[in-house]
Amino acid sequence: MHDLLTGLFFWIALGVFLIGVLARLIMYFRGLSWQLDRVAYTSHPGAGFKGAVRSIYKWLIPFGTYGWRTQPFITIVFFGFHIGAVLIPLFLLGHNLFLQEKLGISFFTLNPCFADILTWTVVISAFFLILRRLVLPEVRIMTTLYDYFILGVAIAPFVTGLFARYQVGDYSFWLNMHIFCGEILLIAIPFTKLSHVFLFFASRAQLGMDFGIKRGGMKGTKMAW
Amino acid sequence: MPEGKFCNKKPIDTAEGINELLSDTSGNNYYQEMKELDIDSDLLWKTIQNTCKSRTKTWLEICAHCGMCAESCFLYQVNGRDPKQVPAYKIQSTLGEIIKRKGKVDNQFMRDTMETAWSKCTCCNRCGTYCPHGIDTGIMFSYLRGLLYQQGFVPWELKIGAGMHRVYRAQMDVTDEDFVDTFEWMVEEYEDDYPGLTVPVDVENADIMYTVNAREVKHYPEDLAEAAILFHMAGENWTVPSKGWEQTSLAMFAGDWAACKMQVESVYEAMERLKPARMIGTECGHAHRATVIEGPYWAGRKNGQPPAESIHYVEWLAEALNTGKLKIDPSKRIKELVTLQDSCNYIRNHGLKKATRDIIKHIVEPGYFVEMSPNKEHNYCCGGGGGFNGIGLFRKQRNIALLTKRDQILATGAKLVLAPCHNCWDAIRDLEEEYEIGIRWSFLKPIVIKMLVIPEHLKPEE
Amino acid sequence: MFKKILFATSATQASDHAARVAFNIAKNYQSSLNIFHVMGVPTRGYSQVVIDVKTKEEVAVDEDYTAWVTEEVRTYYEKHLDGSFEHTIDVAVGFPAREILRQAKTIKPDLILIGGSTGDEDESVYKKNSAGSTLQKVAKAAKCPVLVVNRPAASFWGGLSNIVFGTDFSKTSDKAFDFAMKVAKALDCEVNVFHAIDITPLHTGKILTQDEIEQQIRESLRKIRARYEPRLKELKAYSMDVAEGIPYMEIVKYARDNMADLIIMAHHSRKVVSDDTRLGGNVEQVIVRAGCPVISINK
After folding, report:
1. Which domains does chain B show, CATH number per domain?
2. Does CATH number 3.40.50.12780 belong to domain C162-260?
3. What digits encode the pLDDT tens for the residues B91-106?
4. What domains sit in chain A, N to C, each tagged with a CATH number?
5. Are C88 and C34 in contact (CB under 8 A)?
6. Quick one: which H or E segment has residue C49?
7. Alpha-carbon span B319 to B329, nearest angstrom
């Protein structure tokens, strides 16, 4: 089981993920239309690029925008969730060892204690994200089962990972579950709302180009995000 | 009844058509007929497939339903934080549903969607700047309006408005002759006070081609005279086109993209005919957006620019004051608390916040200007944008929408509101009428004229 | 003389005294009277909706409504429209001053006749959206003489026999004088030329001595004689006077003392001064206070 998960399944998951992401990004940018979107993307590449970079970069900084600053609670929860959700899969020691073995590459690794804190932050933040959906009327009205499902797919590797980490019950069961959930996550990314992990950049870049080219950027006004 | 006599899918292309629809007082029959209007689901779905591309599709798909846009929407705030007013919900439950059902929606759904599209969104685009994913719901509502217009589900006044553009190339029944005639009449009326005042019609290669809002011609032509006076005082070489003088576009509010194209092309033709160095429009927000920001795309101009450099009136005024073309008598500056309404259409959506504040520096005694909060690109809509002001059916909703601006103005303590935008001006006037908070409101032109230093050679003989 | 008169009316009691004068003139001088009523002021942005000036409600204007309002106006003045003079009725939508001027531009009347303030001013729909009163704006921009009847007292009018012409020796005053002469000759009236010296400290910058005042009076009288007397001689009766005080008060007093039935003055304030007629120029003040109709001449 373990071999299958770390072997064939891993390759399938990684392949689907990479090809899926690439294909969707290409489709996204090919689907942009200067006339329908009413943004002259190609005529003003410089202004567009500046706008796009600014639009992404500002929103990546916690409390970096009016939007983040006006709603501190969700900002903390969001970043609590997302920082861990990005760092842990890539920079956990165990993950790097695995990658080294499979792909012959490895990244910088996190201090294990710090990694624990990050993982717990992800799970706790996820709890608050769910709580928000249940409690706040303006979020509840839009929330569908699909939203919970997506959240479930996203945190399953973290929860199972924690079980394995603290060796609750059968370690190898939790490890396999963890790997399985991780692979499901990889496969789900290109095809579900989880595509926002890369389409976030695409969409932000697009609106950034809009502001950079059409809505004031070329007048010399940088949007005060 | 698939197509009604008044309410149908056909755009209005004749003066008779306009009159006929106008004869249906308040659109009573029109809305009655709308209840029976069929939906052409095939056409709707085909249109969506052809025009709903990756940007909009992605927006609808990746929306995390996080609700962060809620607080950004003044209509949400002012309607008791009704979750049905959350921008993401509003668009998901309308456009999102239409796409999900591949256009197979019923009459009741379309009428509800019409209500949402025109009474729960003013296309101010504020939510777009508060979404982490960069989802601009205002843009999607504008797109949705186009789909609704195609199917005949559009408020009565806007069907008429779009028809006006198709027939008169103006938002009201003002002909080209009326325009020139009225402008000349106004200049004549004021030439005693301002010797040498003229209205140069159709002059080629002028520095400035001036375009207006048809309502000025129809109801307050003094505005035309004031524009002429200020150009005259600044010593500008300016002209107005006898054709293509209307800068506004109710067709944009209506979602009648074909009419938008016709309208804006009439202005571009004037630019190409007269070859001015620059085009300047009057103090109107949506007119600027229609002709300068969105117009190039309707007209198929790939670089996104109008044929001649086009600027907003506040840009010209700021420039004229900054360069000293117009001089203000400091003793006549505004010496009372005064605030400024930032128009979404050219502040948030064209970055002109500095121009208006430059003007303020010249015309307001230091210490008397109070910013609204929030302001600049984060300012709230006046409450009447996107066509909201004129729609009788949604008048109640519009009056509620004015509360945001009312409270913002009250918080400044100012009794004078500068509103360099026709729509904002109207909304602020209406809010005074509705809620009587004792404020005055004004365009910039009349205020500036009162405090000008008139050059010796332009003074009237005594 | 007054062949074609544009009578701008609210078709309410507020215009009744003006109406009395209008019908009187029309009957006595065989004028053709255009009764013009601005029925509504635009509201709601670009829509067709107006605020009805009478009911103060929002109404949608269409052909039926226009016809109905026209009929209302006709009914209101029914007993006066006895066929003794020609009349037409027009109604329009817009801001009153502008629409009155637009109508004047179209029909080119010899005289615009207009009432004073419309009822309780704060409530009047006409007041909305416009800085300065309708009256000020029309008087400033009209190309023909504008006759204003503000106070009810001004409307008890038998006919024209005694005109007071108030002058400030400006070019516009000369035009007003031409007009006064024209009226006087046509209707065989007496003309009393009058000038008031402003002795308010606000105007003079100091308190004048009596010698200074009397010096000015003598000078003004000389001026009047030189400027107007040669032509006044064409008339059967005329007089010339100068007085000191607050100008508009002096004119009103002079007109009252001389039992004038018409005051003619030049209007040449450059700007619409204020929302408040009480703060307007001399002509406005005279209009507000005079016990007889006032004609303001602009061009």
Report:
1. 39-154 (1.10.1060), 169-311 (no CATH), 322-450 (3.40.50)
2. no
3. 999 999 999 999 999 9
4. 2-219 (1.20.950)
5. yes
6. strand C49-52
7. 17
Residue A118 tokens read as 């990050």
Point out the least confidently predicted range of A155-164, B44-53, C129-138: C129-138
Give CATH 3.40.50.620 domain extents, chain C.
4-155, 162-260
What is the Cα–Cα distance from C183 to C263, expressed in whole angstroms? 12
The distance from CA A159 to its chain's CA centroid, rounded to whole angstroms, is 17
**Can you tell me the distance from the alpha carbon of A168 to that of A174, in angstroms, rounded to the nearest whole number?**
8
pLDDT of residue C208: 83
B291/B246 Cα distance (integer angstroms): 9
How long is chain C?
299
In sequence order, which residues have a C-beta less than 8 Å from that of residue B311 and are 6 or more positions away?
A: B278, B279, B280, B292
The answer to whether C244 and C204 have CB atoms below 8 angstroms apart is no
pLDDT in tens, B68-81: 999 999 999 999 99
CB contact under 8 A, B219 and C94: yes
Which range has the top average pLDDT, B22-26, B340-344, C129-133? B340-344
- Class (C level, CATH) for C4-155: alpha beta
- Go through chain A and tell me how many residues it has: 225
With CB atoms and an 8 Å threshold, state whether A31 touches B354: no
CB atoms within 10 A of CB B436: 8
Is residue C63 predicted with pLDDT exceeding 60?
yes
Which residue carries 């929306």 as its tokens? Answer: B63
How crowded is residue B62: how many other Cβ atoms within 10 Å of its Cβ?
21
pLDDT band for position C129 (50/70/90)?
very low
Contact C131, B226 (CB under 8 A): no
Q: How many other CB atoms sit within 10 Å of the CB of residue C87?
A: 20
Which tokens sit at B71? 């607080």
State the angle between helix axes of B54-62 and B137-150 in degrees (0 to 180), rounded to the nearest 10.
120
Q: How far apart are CA C58 and CA C128, in angstroms?
A: 14
Q: Are B304 and A220 within 8 A, CB to CB? A: no
Question: CA of C33 to nearest chain B CA: how many angstroms apart?
Answer: 24
C-alpha dist (Å) from residue C199 to B156, B360, C238, C279: 62, 40, 26, 18
Residue A195 sits at the chain B interface (C-beta within 8 Å): yes
What DSSP element (H or E) covers C114? strand C111-115
The pLDDT-based confidence of C131 (bands split at 50, 70, 90) is: very low
ipTM passes above 0.85: yes
Instruction: Report pLDDT for B421.
Output: 97
C chain contacts of residue B452, beta-carbon cutoff 8 Å: none
- Rg of chain B taking only CA atoms, in angstroms: 22
How big is the CA angle at A76 (ends A175 and B63), to the nearest 5 degrees?
Answer: 80
The beta-carbon neighbor of B26 closest among C46, C60, C105 is: C60
Tens digits of per-residue pLDDT, C93-104?
A: 998 889 999 999
- Beta strand C49-52 with C32-42 is antiparallel
